[in-house]
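Fold this complex.
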Amino acid sequence: MTWFQKWRRGEGAQGLFLISPTLAFTLLLLAVPLVLVVALSFWTQDYLTLHRTFTMDNYKTAWSEPMYQYLMGRSLKISMMVTAMTVLLAYPVAYFISFYVPPKRKAMWIFLITIPFWTSYLMRIFLWKVILGYNGVVNGSLMGLGLIEEPLSFILYNQNAVVLTLAHAWVPFAILPIFVALERVDRSLIEAAEDLGDSKLRRFFRVTLPLSMPGVIAATIIVFIPTIGDYVTPRLVGGPNGLMIANMIELQFKKANNAPLGAALAISAMAIVTCVALIFIWMNKKYIRGAK
Amino acid sequence: MLGRGHFFKWYMGIFLVFLYAPAILLPVFAFNDSSVVSFPLKGFTTKWFAVLQTTDSLHVAVRNSLMIAVTTAIFSTLFGVLAARASTRFSFPGRRSIMGFIMLPMVLPEIIIGVSLLVVIIQMGFELSLWSIILGHILICTPFCIAILSSAFMNLDQSLEEASFDLGQTRWNTFWLVILPLVMPGIVASLLIAFTISLDEFIIAFFLAGTEPTLPVYIWGQLRFPQKLPSLMALGTILLVLSISLLLIADYFRRRGVRKTGIENSGGFL
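Structure:
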C-alpha cells in the first residue's frame, strides 16, 4: 500500500509543481493587488500623500453621498437590463444552433457568432454611436423610408443606447454557455414528454428550459458582473444621463486624485454585484428544486 | 415545425444584422469619400488609408501594441500550457479551487484588474511602462489560453504517453516527441487568441499606460477629433481584417488539433 500512496503523492506533487508558475503569477498579480486595493479603501489621501490610518470614511462617503448612491443604483439597473436583454436575445440563438442546425455545421455557426466579439472594441462601440446618432444610420433609413419626419433623439446619449451597445458586446458570451447546456439536454427526455402528450410549449417549459437553466445562470453571471465595470460604453454613447459607477471610479483614480475613494467605490460595486449574483443563483436553485 | 422553423429563420436573420452591423459599416465608412462619418455615402476613396501611412504617432502606438501583444501571447500561452497540462493530467489537492482562482480574471470586471495593478505598481514605486500593460494582459489572456489548451490536452490519449514510456523514452523526451506535437495546433491557436485579445484590449491599457500609448489608447485619444474619424475607420478596417484572419488561422489550427486526436469536432473557442 505504501508504494501506492507514494505514487499518489507523487502525482499530486507533479501537478502542483507544474501549475505553480501560473498560480504564483496569478497570486502575485491578482490576489496581492486586490488585497492592496482593499487596504487602500480604508486609507485616506490628501493631494499626493497617503495616510495609512484605518478609517471607514471612504465607505461612508461612497454609501451616503446621494450622487454615488444614484450612480450605483443606475449602474445596477443598467447592468440588470443588459443581462436580461442579452440572455433573452441569446437563448433563441443558442436554441436554434443546438436544435435546428445539423451537427456538422454547429461549429461554423458558433464561429460566426463569436467573430464580432473579436473586432476592435472601441470601434464597435463608436459605430453604435454612428448607427444611433442624430444623422445616423437608423434615423437616416427611417426618414428615407418616410416612416418618421424628424430624427429620433431618444436612441442615442441615454441609457437605452448604453443597454443596446453593451448587449451587443456581450451576447456571444451569453450564447456559448446556453448552447453548451442545451447540447447536454438528453433528447430522449423531450421525446418522452412528447409521447406523454405534452404540447410543444409545455415540453419547452417543463423539460428543455429547466434542464438548460445552468447555462442561463452561467450566462447571467458572465454578463452581469463585468458590465458594471465598463466605462467606455457609457462615456461614448451614454450622454450625461447614461454615466455609470465605473466612470466615477476611473475619475477618482485619475483626474480627481482620490484613489482611496475610488477603491471604496470599486469594492462596494463588486460587493453589491456579487450579492445580487448570489441571490440570483440561490433563487434559481430554489426554483428548480421546487419544480422537481 | 414549419412555423417554428420560420420563426427562427427570421429571428436569426435579424439577429445577425444586429450582430454584424458595426463590422459591416466600418469598411463602408473607411472607403467613403467624405470627412463626415454619416450617410448618405459620397463616393469611393482610399485616401483615408493613405493618411494612416503618414501618421507617425500611430506608428509608434502600433509598434508598442505589437511588442505587448507578442510578449503577452508567449507568456500567457506558457502559463496556459503549464496549467492546462497540470489540470488535465494530474489530480492534486485543491485543483478545482486553484483552477477557479486562475480563471477568475475571465469574470472579473477589467476595471478592477486595471485599478488594482495601478495601485500595486504605484505603491511599489515603479514607473508605469509598457511592461505594466504586459503584466495586466498576461493576467487576462491566460484564462483564455487555458480554455483552449485544456481541450487540446484533454483530447490526448494517455495510452500514447504510456506506450512511449514502455518503449523506454524518458518523461522529457515523451513530452517533446509525443505530447507537444499533438497539442501544437492548440498552442498555435492559444498564441493567436492571446495576441488578438492583447492587441485590442483598452480598459487595462488605459489605466496602466504611462507616456507610451498602445493602439487602442491612441484610438481613444483620436475619437474626440471629428476630422480624424474617417482615417480611424480605415484603421479599424485594417484591424478588423487582421483579427478575422488571425481567428480563421487559429480556428483552422484548433480544428486540425481536434482531428489529429481523432475526436469529433464540436463547438468553437471557449
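The CA atoms of residues 77 and 228 of chain A lie 10 Å apart.
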